[in-house]
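quick q for whoever's on today - can somebody do inverse folding on this one?? i tried earlier but teh output was garbage lol. tokens:
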């Protein structure tokens, strides 16, 4: 197949991990006979430093034209002034909204050989395979904001339609997995959560009667995620709760540098990015873990292009690297390799694998 991929490396480690992900995408193209045309665009602080807006018109147009978007990360200390009216993060939020990417899929499936990279007991991590579906274009992120000298406010608003579409998507995923859906809210306090809970109960009851629905309050969910992670299948939750719970869930996987994500709307176009940020503490040193970005490419292959064997090949190559204890310092400490070497190791395995062992 042929596809146009918009590549927005962004800031900090964004360009470093994205470079490896693009190399992997090209290696998949060569191996499987596809042509992925990658075109770069500016976003975030990199765009601001070039005198443009955090989401320049040209980048937005490129993403609209593209079949999929690969993004690194945005933000960093250089743009962190709390008084600033324009921030790099607005570029990413603007893009998610502009492309109507209302569902953010964040899979968490710790590799068995990495159980010692997590501070949790290995026995707790056995069998953990969670798909968090985070609502991505509503809630407190996008409500009206006010800022005065001595007060500020962020409005949290959800419509029934916004809740229905993301819950349907999450329930469909649960149907293809183990049939369990956990909806996380704060319905004991928030009006938006009461609407969320009522809507979720109705949609699942009417349209997905075979799904087992569990509802949890977000504070308790934060605890259950560490105490009984193997009992979760699909988790669906609002924008802010999903943001926080998935950084917490990265502790199950062993590193922030391992969790990919896919942001989807109604069509096949998606935005693929690691869940981590620009990691200013690691930037420019070729030490950041590129696996989250590379695994985001696997999600792109599967979800936007329908290339399941290719996606599996990438996932297997990463998994093989981890099994061989080839990875960056966040995973393997002193024996860790560089970002570039980790990317190369994935490519080497992709090239070596016999195609008939892949699918
Ligand atoms: P962060 O995710 O950048 O870093 C948190 C911790 O995880 C740090 O210790 C970092 O070293 C580690 N880490 C992150 N990615 C890693 C990787 N690939 N390999 C190894 N270790 C990794 O979060 P932060 O420090 O709170 O935020 C830094 C900046 O990134 C902020 O400006 C924030 O707004 C931005 N941010 C952007 C995104 C995004 O673009 N999607 C996501 C989160 C944060
Ligand atoms: C993420 C990030 C973003 C978010 C920021 C950078 C706007 O933390 O993708 O998880 O909060 O959604
Ligand atoms: Mn986040």
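ok took a stab at it. sequence:
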């Amino acid at each position: 197949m042929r596809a146009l991929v918009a590549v927005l490396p962004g800031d900090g480690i964004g360009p470093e991990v994205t470079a490896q992900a693009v190399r992997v995408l090209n290696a998949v193209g060569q191996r499987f006979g596809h042509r992925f045309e990658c075109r770069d665009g500016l976003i975030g602080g990199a765009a601001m430093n070039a005198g443009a807006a955090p989401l320049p018109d040209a980048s937005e147009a490129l993403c609209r034209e593209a079949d999929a978007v690969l993004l690194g990360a945005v933000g960093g200390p250089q743009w962190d002034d709390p008084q600033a009216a324009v921030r790099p993060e607005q570029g990413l939020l603007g893009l998610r909204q502009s492309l109507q990417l209302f569902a953010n899929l964040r899979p968490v499936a710790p590799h068995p050989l990495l159980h010692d990279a997590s501070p949790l007991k290995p026995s707790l991590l056995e069998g953990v395979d969670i798909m968090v579906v985070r609502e991505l274009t509503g809630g407190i992120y996008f409500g009206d904001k006010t800022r005065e000298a001595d007060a500020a406010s962020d409005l949290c608003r959800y419509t029934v339609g916004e809740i229905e579409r993301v819950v349907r998507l999450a329930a469909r995923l649960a149907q293809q997995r183990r049939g369990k859906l956990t909806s996380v809210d704060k319905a004991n306090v928030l009006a938006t959560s009461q609407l969320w809970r009522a809507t979720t109960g109705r949609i699942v009851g009417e349209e997905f009667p075979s799904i087992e629905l569990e509802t949890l309050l977000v504070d308790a969910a934060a605890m259950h995620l560490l105490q009984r992670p193997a009992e979760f299948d699909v988790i669906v939750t609002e924008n802010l709760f999903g943001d926080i719970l998935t950084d917490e869930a990265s502790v199950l996987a062993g590193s922030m540098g391992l969790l990919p994500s896919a942001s989807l709307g109604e069509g096949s176009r998606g935005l693929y990015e690691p869940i981590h940020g620009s990691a200013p503490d690691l930037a420019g040193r070729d030490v950041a873990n590129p696996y989250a970005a590379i695994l985001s490419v696997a999600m792109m292959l599967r979800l936007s292009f329908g290339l399941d064997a290719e996606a599996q090949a990438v996932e297997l190559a990463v998994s093989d690297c981890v099994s061989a204890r080839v990875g960056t310092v966040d995973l393997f400490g002193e024996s860790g390799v560089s970002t570039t070497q980790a990317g190369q190791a994935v490519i080497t395995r992709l090239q070596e694998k016999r195609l008939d062992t892949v699918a």
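fwiw Residues 131 and 141 are 22 Å apart (CA to CA). also The chain is about 45% helix and 15% strand. so keep that in mind when u check it
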